Each structure stands twice: as structure tokens, then as C-alpha cells.
UniProtKB/TrEMBL annotation:
GO terms for biological process: DNA-templated transcription. This is DNA-binding transcriptional regulator, LysR family. PROSITE patterns: HTH_LYSR (PS50931). It comes from the Bacteria. The keyword DNA-binding applies. Belongs to the LysR transcriptional regulatory family. Residues 1-59 form the HTH lysR-type domain. It comes from Pseudoalteromonas denitrificans DSM 6059.
Length: 297
């Protein structure tokens, strides 16, 4: 029995709650993963998992031994990562789930820079503004805007990104200036489908405004284009808006009123069994994105 491989199979089955999903993630057959668990249980002389036709869960001894197994994998992965950094190039595939606008801009720039340094790494970028299912979609790392990630995941804060209310000069000339959040109910607002109530903070007062408009989209890039074309007012993260604020193509509205910002997090299932190439990329992301993104002034 390869004890290390058997431990890896045990951890994946425990984390996913499925022999099939663990086998897919490890790129092994279900039969082999099942054999690994049996051999490990025989070697340790203890039952590690409860098995039913619908679910797989840890036994009490399995829960206790899981922690030790994770430590073993973590130590070995760290040793492999250290050796690889000295002796060979990083290789392998990384599946990243990311919001569309982030994936098309900031993330793409980092992926390109990492690819130059490590040309044998293959990236799969899954762009969507919904939250990906990490286990079901075999995601190595998901990037999410949120104040606080789900406690069931491991999360690493990357940076804070401010938001800005903006529109084109053409829109302003046609519809007039915006001097308060409440006036937005009379304007054509360009709305992300997950955010039809816009929030503001004015002198410590929290203000919410239900907005309407002729364009709703799940892609912020569409809303940016509509704003540039003078269609309406947009509520955008500054990583997308700052380029156009700098050129004057978009104008900031309500500059003295604060828009709530969001943190960008790297979210993943476990530190214990994280391939060196994934760990190296997350470290690279954190290094590249050390500074928060504020509104262009």
C-alpha cells in the first residue's frame, strides 16, 4: 500500500463527502480510491468513514485521525513546494472562478505575468458573476467580492476595492447633475442584476435607494459600455471605472458621499491538500495586489 496516496484519498473523500468526486479530483478511478480507504482502515485497524447509499461521513476516530492526516499532507506538500522552487518549474493546471469584470482586466494581467514566469502552468478561467460551487466545479481558487467569506471555506484577503457612481458628460448635459442619492430614482440607472438597491453613506447615515433603468446585466462590462455611451448612471467597482475616470470619459457623481467598498478574497477548500502550483499562484496574486484600489482623483 502507498500510505501517502491512501491518506490523500481519505482526505479528499472526507472533504467532498463522495468517493466519485474524490476520484475525479485526484484523477483516479473510484475503485482505486475505495481500495485506498479499505487499505488505510485495515492498516490503522479502525473504521474511518460511515458509508450509506446517499452519503459519506467521518466516524469519530476518522475525525480525530483526519487532523493528523492533514498535517502529514501539509508537511509533504510544503516540502515538495520548497524542493520544486529550487529544482524545477511549476507545472499543472489551475481552475479559477472569478467575477467577469475582474477576470477580463486585473486577473488577466496577473495570469499573463505568472504565465511568463511559469510557462508550463495551464489556466482555466471560469468567468461568472455567480458564486461557483468549489467542489462540484473542481475549482482550485475562487475570487469573490464580499465583506466576510463563508466560514466553511479557507479565505485570504487580497485587497479592498472602492466603488464609484459615474456617468458620461453627454448624459449629464442631457439629464442634469446629480446632487443627492435620492435623485437617482428619477434617473436611468445601469443595474447589475444582483444589485437593484444602491447603498451610500452620507455623514454616517446609511442610505439605500431602489433604482430602475433600461439595462440590467450580469456583466459589469456591459454596464461600463452603456455608461460610456451616455445611456445612464452606473455604480461600478473602481478597478473597472478608474481608467475611464482618468481619461474623463466618465465623471464621478456625489464625490463627497461614500459608497460601501468590498474586499476581494481568494477562497479555497483547504490548505492541507493544496497543490504547490495553486499555492504559488495565490501567493503571487497577494504580492501583485498589495495595494487597495481607491477612486481615481
Amino acid at each position: 500500500m502507498d500510505k501517502f496516496e491512501a491518506i490523500r484519498s481519505f482526505i479528499e473523500v472526507a472533504n467532498t463527502g463522495s468517493f466519485t468526486e474524490a476520484a475525479d479530483k485526484l484523477e483516479l478511478s473510484r475503485v482505486k480510491v475505495t481500495r485506498h480507504i479499505k487499505e488505510l482502515e485495515d492498516w490503522l485497524n479502525v473504521r474511518l468513514l460511515h458509508r450509506t447509499t446517499r452519503s459519506v461521513s467521518l466516524t469519530s476516530p476518522g475525525h480525530d485521525l483526519m487532523q493528523h492526516c492533514e498535517q502529514i499532507i501539509n508537511e509533504v506538500s510544503g516540502l515538495e513546494s520548497l524542493a520544486r522552487s529550487h529544482n524545477e518549474e511549476l507545472t499543472g493546471e489551475i481552475r479559477i472562478a472569478t467575477p467577469i469584470g475582474l477576470g477580463q482586466n486585473l486577473l488577466y494581467e496577473v495570469v499573463e505575468a505568472f504565465s511568463v514566469l511559469h510557462p508550463k502552468v495551464v489556466f482555466q478561467l471560469i468567468l461568472s458573476d455567480r458564486n461557483a460551487q468549489l467542489v462540484d466545479e473542481r475549482i482550485d481558487v475562487a475570487l469573490r467580492y464580499t465583506k466576510q467569506p463563508d466560514d466553511s471555506f479557507i479565505a485570504r484577503r487580497l485587497m479592498q476595492i472602492e466603488s464609484v457612481l459615474c456617468c458620461s458628460e453627454h448624459y449629464l448635459k442631457k439629464h442634469g447633475d446629480i446632487t443627492s442619492p435620492q435623485q437617482l430614482v428619477a434617473h436611468n440607472c445601469l443595474i447589475h442584476i444582483s444589485q437593484n438597491i444602491w447603498s451610500f453613506i452620507d455623514k454616517q447615515e446609511y442610505i439605500t435607494v431602489p433604482v430602475t433603468g433600461c439595462i440590467k446585466a450580469n456583466d459589469l462590462g456591459v454596464l461600463v459600455r452603456a455608461a460610456l455611451n451616455g445611456i445612464g448612471v452606473a455604480y461600478l467597482p473602481c478597478d473597472l471605472a478608474n481608467t475611464y475616470l482618468a481619461t474623463g470619459e466618465l465623471k464621478q457623481m456625489l464625490p463627497k458621499i461614500t459608497l460601501p467598498s468590498a474586499s476581494l478574497w481568494a477562497v479555497y477548500l483547504s490548505r492541507s491538500y493544496q497543490r504547490p502550483v495553486v499555492r504559488a499562484f495565490i501567493d503571487f496574486l497577494a504580492q501583485q495586489w498589495q495595494d487597495d484600489i481607491k477612486v481615481f482623483q
